[in-house]
Amino acid sequence: MLYIVGLGLGDERDITVRGLDAVRSCSKIYMEAYTSLLSLGLDPAALANLEKLYGKEITVADREMVEERVDQVLLEAADADVAFLVVGDPFGATTHTDLVVRAKKMGVQVKVIHNASVMNAIGVCGLQLYRYGETISIPFFTEEWRPDSFYKKIVNNSQLGLHTLCLLDIRVKEPTWESLARGKKVYEPPRFMTVNTAISQLLEVEEERAYGKDTLCIGVARLGSDDQKIVAGPMEKLLDVDFGPPLHCLIIVGETHPLEEEMLEFYKM
Ligand SMILES: C[S@@+](CC[C@H](N)C(=O)[O-])C[C@H]1O[C@@H](n2cnc3c(N)ncnc32)[C@H](O)[C@@H]1O
């Protein structure tokens, strides 16, 4: 059996009782570590906290492993109980749907144990969850590569008066271009996009007045942890706010209802 277990958003204690039972019953535990991370980060000390509470050794599954060697995990799950831990909810990232499809095709039984996700915990800002349009992902721009397909989606959301949740790039264990060309991988240091970088890039690609420097936005950091930070204000003003350590996300506010406005007042700068 493959248990895909959501860990929630805060720290090791956010796992559900049902999730903990599953983890403790498994012979092998993997933790997916590239679509998201807990507020306690991924340094060895943080991982040790998880291992201590769960009473199990955890193997970190990086992007290469999930994309290239996940069949090995599935083969193990065909014969034994294996847990695959995912920060947030297992279906808060598209990658894990692919894992379920592959497992089912290989005849491996799958059990999903849900938890809080950025996709629903973001409700704490006061904007109603059913008033959001398509969620977008903003990748880091480079000198040569400035993909801006997210822009059209913001235009569509804004035309409908809907809010846009922007998820921000995470780059963990990414090989450098030069090392790929040389055939021997060297990895970039981990990088997490801040609210400030996201806003700079958004202002750079703006062309149809879907939003501008005065558009009301909400910057969110470490959602679900004790030191979460939520600040609402005009896009340009948020550029100067220090949101602290990762993870960050951003909301471009659409048309608001009076109750949403009352909640937003608590977060205004
Ligand atoms: C691909 S999503 C993965 C979502 C995760 N599986 C979940 O269900 O929450 C990852 C992105 O969501 C946002 N995110 C996730 N957790 C967050 C948190 N605790 N605080 C702020 N943003 C977060 C960040 O922008 C991050 O790059």
From TrEMBL:
Keywords: Methyltransferase, S-adenosyl-L-methionine, Transferase. Signal peptide: none annotated. It is an enzyme of class 2 (transferase). It holds the Pfam family TP_methylase. S-adenosyl-L-methionine binds at L9, D89, G92, S117, V118, L168, L223, H248. It catalyses: 2-[(3S)-amino-3-carboxypropyl]-L-histidyl-[translation elongation factor 2] + 4 S-adenosyl-L-methionine = diphthine methyl ester-[translation elongation factor 2] + 4 S-adenosyl-L-homocysteine + 3 H(+). InterPro entries: 4pyrrol_Mease (IPR000878), 4pyrrol_Methylase_sf (IPR035996), 4pyrrole_Mease_sub1 (IPR014777), 4pyrrole_Mease_sub2 (IPR014776), Dphthn_synthase (IPR004551). Residues 1-238 form the Tetrapyrrole methylase domain. S-adenosyl-L-methionine-dependent methyltransferase that catalyzes four methylations of the modified target histidine residue in translation elongation factor 2 (EF-2), to form an intermediate called diphthine methyl ester. The four successive methylation reactions represent the second step of diphthamide biosynthesis. Belongs to the diphthine synthase family. This is diphthine methyl ester synthase.
